[in-house]
Write a structure and sequence with these properties.
The chain is about 70% helix and about 0% strand. The protein is an all-alpha fold and about 70 residues long. The longest helix has about 30 residues. The chain is elongated, with a radius of gyration of 19 Å.
Length: about 70
């Protein structure tokens, strides 16, 4: 009977750890950004209003950040 482990060991273990750490960091960064946005809106007494143009700007900024992170290993 062969054993199929859910968590890989050996060569592939670093990949799983990296995905988990990256996912946790992404969630924490997203929650932090949302918290800052909420606090700024409360301080100014308004409801946050993000335009589609601002959304595109943030998306492009995040793509640039991901490219910079990806080039760290080179």
């Amino acid at each position: 009977m062969s054993q199929n482990n859910i968590i890989p060991s050996g060569e592939d273990a670093w990949k799983t750890r990296l995905l988990i750490y990256g996912g946790v960091f992404g969630v924490l960064a997203g929650l932090g950004a949302a918290y800052i946005l909420i606090k700024n809106a409360e301080r100014e007494g308004r409801v946050p209003d993000i335009s589609p143009g601002e959304g595109v700007q943030v998306g492009l900024l995040l793509l640039g950040l991901m490219r910079a992170i990806a080039s760290l290993g080179k």
